[in-house]
Specification:
The complex is a heterodimer of chains A (about 240) and B (about 220). Chain A is about 40% helix and about 25% strand. Chain A contains nine helices and eleven strands. Chain A starts with a strand and ends with a helix. Chain B has one domain: MetI-like (MetI-like fold, Orthogonal Bundle), CATH 1.10.3720.10. By secondary structure, chain B is mainly alpha-helical. Chains A and B meet through helix 2, strand 7, helix 3 and helix 5 of A and helix 6 and helix 7 of B. The complex binds adenosine-5'-diphosphate and magnesium ion. Magnesium ion (MG) binds next to helix 1 of chain A.
Chain lengths: ~240, ~220
């Protein structure tokens, strides 16, 4: 049975029909790479999966938490789905450790001691166990993004969504973040990631989805799809990215 | 003939002045805590458009900001008893200060809340925090940090404005000064000392509040 199941999902922003009937199934342990041109609806799709955007029509189920035509328990959904953003979005008044502890204590009423243990464990996982007491503005971009990953993991999500999480980073900081994602993938974490790192998508992903004008235009095994794109749009996109 | 300065007839009443200053400070302390508390609630309702409270607070803010403090005070102390709401001069003074500061701090804190980057609220939502939890744990402290200097200035304005409470016979510093002046007719000396006392109090309150803000709101060393 699939962990994430999306059926006939539609989303409009006013007159702009942004998602035009998305069908997608993600199994436990899948690493899905979502690619496509700017404006094709990748971020919107990710944001609907954890309820940051409402759904006009269609069905979304994540591990039993369901939305039918936009109605359902959003907070139940969000507890199953973690999200990491391009701009990190750490809470600036809290230390790295407090950033990670906040949701377990506030949302799950975990005791402070226990939340502290969780935070230490998650910071260790992203290689930042020595930064528990650092504030976000004392960390590099790469470190901030790793704290953001630890913060999402602290809620023990079933699936982690990553929206261009290395795009705001200086080139030399990209790899430390990708290494963490690679590690998570190897531990069996279910991941859906929007990325422009094509080599990473091919090496780490087991499923590639190419979005074009609000639809899933082509999908399949990354190595196969990259080697032999079936549509001119994907071939053109791969060509354009490789030139860059 | 030049005027002969003589401060002795004023200083002889220094106990009255000090008591009055203590009452002014107490009024300010209570007014500041409750007024800022009211301002936080008002700012939340206004910034996040919590209906119908957003419009009620909007009306309240407009009324208070466009009427004189003295008239607000008279309305509470002399006007409300006609409706059967009676209170002592101290209660009226505190209430007027809370209502006045509440209105101004609603607007000040609202600006701080509205400057919250969208991404932080989205991050909190994605972690399954409710709106109220997001406000309390993610939005409030950085918002207060942004506007703290403006809030401190407003508290001082209200402290200085509390001198009009002498008009309803609340025995604060200005009331004490008026009383002393009516006894010794030493207007210059009396109000000179009183002015100096307000000035020192304002400086001390600013220092104290900036320090408290750094310690409990910003919450980290510079
Ligand atoms: N909050 C919003 N309000 C209105 N339009 C939006 C909003 N977010 C995205 N869009 C529009 O939806 C389309 C898809 O955007 P997005 O999902 O961000 O694409 P991608 O992530 O693939 O670049 C674009 O046309 C964009 O302008
Ligand atoms: Mg995007």
């Amino acid at each position: 049975m699939s962990l994430v199941k999306i059926t006939g999902l539609h989303k409009h922003f006013g007159a702009n029909h942004v998602l035009k009937g998305i069908d997608l199934e993600v199994a436990q342990g899948d690493v899905v790479a979502l690619i496509g041109r700017s404006g094709s609806g990748k971020s919107t799709l990710l944001r609907t999966i954890n309820g940051l955007e409402t759904i006009d029509k269609g069905e979304l189920v994540v591990d039993g938490a369901a939305l039918h035509d936009g109605k359902g328990d959003l907070r139940a959904l969000r507890q199953k789905v973690g999200m990491v953003f391009q701009q990190f979005n750490l809470f600036p008044h809290l230390t790295a450790g407090q950033n990670v502890m906040l949701a377990p204590t506030v949302v799950k009423s975990t005791s402070k001691r226990e939340a502290e243990d969780i935070a230490k464990e998650m910071l260790l996982k992203v290689g930042l166990s020595d930064k528990f007491n650092s504030f976000p503005d004392q960390l590099s971009g790469g470190q901030q993004q790793r704290v953001a990953i630890a913060r999402a993991l602290a809620m023990k999500p079933k699936v982690l969504l990553c929206d261009e999480i290395t795009s705001a980073l200086d080139p030399e900081l990209v790899n430390e973040v990708l290494a963490v994602v690679r590690q998570l993938a190897s531990e069996g974490m279910t991941l859906i990631m929007v990325t422009h790192e094509m080599r990473f998508a091919r090496d780490v992903g087991n499923k590639l989805i190419f979005m074009h004008q609000g639809r899933i235009h082509e999908s399949g095994d990354p190595k196969t799809v990259f080697a032999a794109p079936q549509t001119p749009e994907l071939a053109g996109f791969i060509g354009a990215v490789q030139e860059a | 003939m030049a005027y002969q300065f003589d401060f002795a007839p004023v200083l002889q009443h220094s106990d009255l002045l000090l008591t009055g200053a203590a009452f002014t400070l107490a009024l300010t302390a209570v007014g500041a805590v409750l007024g800022i508390g009211l301002g936080i609630v008002g700012a939340l309702c206004r910034a996040w458009k919590i209906s119908p409270f957003d419009r009620l607070f909007g009306l309240y803010v407009e009324v208070i900001r466009n009427t004189p403090f003295l008239v607000q005070l008279f309305f509470i102390f002399f006007g409300l008893p006609s409706l059967g709401v009676k209170m002592t001069e101290w209660h009226a003074a505190v209430l007027a200060m809370v209502i006045n500061l509440g209105a101004y701090s609603t607007e000040i804190i609202r600006a701080g809340i509205q400057a919250t980057p969208r991404g932080q609220i989205e991050a909190a939502s994605s972690l399954a925090l409710t709106r109220l939890q997001t406000f309390r744990h993610v939005v409030l402290r950085p918002a207060l940090t942004r506007v703290w200097p403006a809030l401190v200035s407003q508290v001082i304005i209200v402290m200085l404005g509390s001198s009009v409470c002498s008009q309803i016979a609340a025995e604060e510093l200005t009331f004490a000064a008026n009383f002393i002046q009516s006894r010794n007719f030493r207007a210059f000396e009396t109000y000179f000392v009183t002015t100096a006392m307000y000035f020192v109090m304002a400086l001390l309150i600013r220092q104290l509040l900036m320090r408290l803000g750094q310690r409990f709101i910003v919450g980290r060393p510079r």
